[in-house]
Amino acid sequence: MRLEVTGDVREAVEGRPVVVTGLSIGLTDTWLDPSWLDPEALVLPLDYASSVGPDLARTAVLVADHVPQFEAVRTGPAWGDYPAASAWTGDLLDAPRPRGRVVCQNLGNGLSDLVVAAAVVDAAEGQGAGHLLDTGSA
């Protein structure tokens, strides 16, 4: 992987096959212009709708890691008139890549669960609390 630094957002995303964004969540006036992105780009916003606004989302196959939760947050004021997700992110794993641009609005549910679980285990081990269970083999 090669990393380049630029102060020009358009230069950073234009013609790139994969675009990962990571702004603070809730920023305004920071949406990417859909014309800057490759028509076949995979767009992975880590910042929800701070970078990928409704206009860009409507130009793509829009998926989410947890569709019901995505539906609950996409109607918030920061999201504008954001379209509904057309599928779960996991649906794309066993299927051919859809044609055109793909936006994966992953809310981080699974990752959050792992982070919290690791913190609980670390705290329990640090305090000598809890019991290790042998779950056996299935």
UniProtKB/TrEMBL annotation:
<dbReference type="InterPro" id="IPR036291">
    <property type="entry name" value="NAD(P)-bd_dom_sf"/>
</dbReference>
<dbReference type="InterPro" id="IPR023401">
    <property type="entry name" value="ODC_N"/>
</dbReference>
<protein>
    <submittedName>
        <fullName>Uncharacterized protein</fullName>
    </submittedName>
</protein>
